Amino acid sequence: MAFQPEILIALGANLPSEAGSPLQTLRSALTALAREGYAVDEVSKFYATPCFPAGFGPDYCNACARLTGPTDPSRILAALHRVEAQFGRERERRWGSRSLDLDLLAVGETVMPDEATQSRWREIAVEEQTQRTPDTLILPHPRLQDRAFVLVPLCDIAANWRHPILDRTARELCEALPEETRAEVVPM
């Protein structure tokens, strides 16, 4: 059997959907991913997390999952967007409240579109992040190393996943965050 790189995604919601509360929505989204051809191999605990950035809406329910299935990153992203749409996701405002947010964090050690572009987006200032979006898929997700609401649940399922550019594991990236930031991510 050929090696299949692990597909890592982050899930979040801070508004209800037709499925119910944000927690119910995340659980239903995991089921919907199976209909898209992705097996959910492992799911982190579900966490209550402060809205990011502060003041942009109600607090979130967050989790991470490890999937197997077709590994073409564009195909994965399209499937994630279809599932978001099923739960009423509207892309009206960058970092606005949402009924469902599914982010492709990594596909094994894939770097897209290239190391220089990934690094440029990884290093962009927070103020710019609210105003600009890349016009192409960036892998690994360019801000996962900055976000406790991603790294804490990611450590539940893939603590040893190694960032292909930063050469640090998810656990090392998480431990590098301030303790008070990690403490804001509370199991539900």
UniProtKB/TrEMBL annotation:
One of its GO terms (biological process) is tetrahydrofolate biosynthetic process. Residues 94-105 form the 7,8-dihydro-6-hydroxymethylpterin-pyrophosphokinase domain. SUPFAM superfamilies: 6-hydroxymethyl-7,8-dihydropterin pyrophosphokinase, HPPK. It is an enzyme of class 2 (transferase). Its EC number is 2.7.6.3. Pathway: Cofactor biosynthesis; tetrahydrofolate biosynthesis; 2-amino-4-hydroxy-6-hydroxymethyl-7,8-dihydropteridine diphosphate from 7,8-dihydroneopterin triphosphate: step 4/4. One of its GO terms (molecular function) is kinase activity. InterPro entries: Hppk, Hppk_sf. It comes from the Bacteria. Belongs to the HPPK family. Catalyzes the transfer of pyrophosphate from adenosine triphosphate (ATP) to 6-hydroxymethyl-7,8-dihydropterin, an enzymatic step in folate biosynthesis pathway. This is 2-amino-4-hydroxy-6-hydroxymethyldihydropteridine pyrophosphokinase. It comes from Alloyangia pacifica.
